[in-house]
């Protein structure tokens, strides 16, 4: 049963990575067709899903938080930003990070413990 859960979680992580890559790609494509401020929402959703969770919640948490703060606040200065654009960017980043945090917790729970001697 643990092996089946681990395989499912492995597939889920790959699906989350693909969703993040698609969101970043769509945000880049959106830069050509709409104001850049609307594309930043997609970057805020997709970028947290791309790096490994060990890096994102480990030594990379400060650079990731710095990038998030820049994306959240700098896009507010761009023309074409929606009145609720800041909230959408923060909420998108929160949902992406919290889904990875839940995934990482479940992944760690399915680890097989070595028998003690």
3D architecture notes:
Helices cover 74% and strands 0% of the residues. The protein has five helices and no strands.
Task: Report the end-to-end length measured between terminal Cα atoms.
Answer: 24 Å
What is the residue-averaged pLDDT? 90
Strand segment tally: 0
- By DSSP (H or I, 4+ residues per run), the number of helices equals 5
Q: pLDDT under 50 segments (min length 5)?
A: none
Structural class: mainly alpha
Q: Provide the β-strand percentage band.
A: under 5%
Rg measurement, Å: 17 Å
Keywords:
about 120 residues, mainly alpha, 5 helices
Brief rundown of the structure:
The protein is mostly helical and 117 residues long. It has five helices and no strands. α1 packs antiparallel against α5 (85-109).
Topology:
Layout (H helix, E strand, L loop, with lengths): L1 H32 L2 H11 L6 H4 L4 H14 L10 H25 L8
Helix pairs in contact: 1-2, 1-5, 2-5, 4-5
């Amino acid at each position: 049963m643990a092996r089946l859960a681990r395989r499912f979680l492995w597939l889920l992580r790959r699906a989350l990575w693909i969703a993040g890559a698609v969101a970043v790609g769509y945000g880049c494509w959106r830069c050509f067709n709409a104001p850049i401020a609307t594309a930043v929402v997609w970057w805020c959703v997709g970028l947290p899903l791309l790096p490994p969770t060990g890096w994102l919640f480990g030594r990379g948490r400060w650079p990731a938080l710095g990038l998030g703060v820049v994306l959240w606040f700098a896009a507010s200065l761009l023309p074409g930003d929606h009145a609720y654009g800041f909230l959408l960017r923060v909420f998108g980043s929160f949902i992406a990070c919290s889904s990875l945090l839940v995934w990482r917790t479940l992944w760690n729970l399915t680890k097989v413990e070595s028998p003690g001697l």
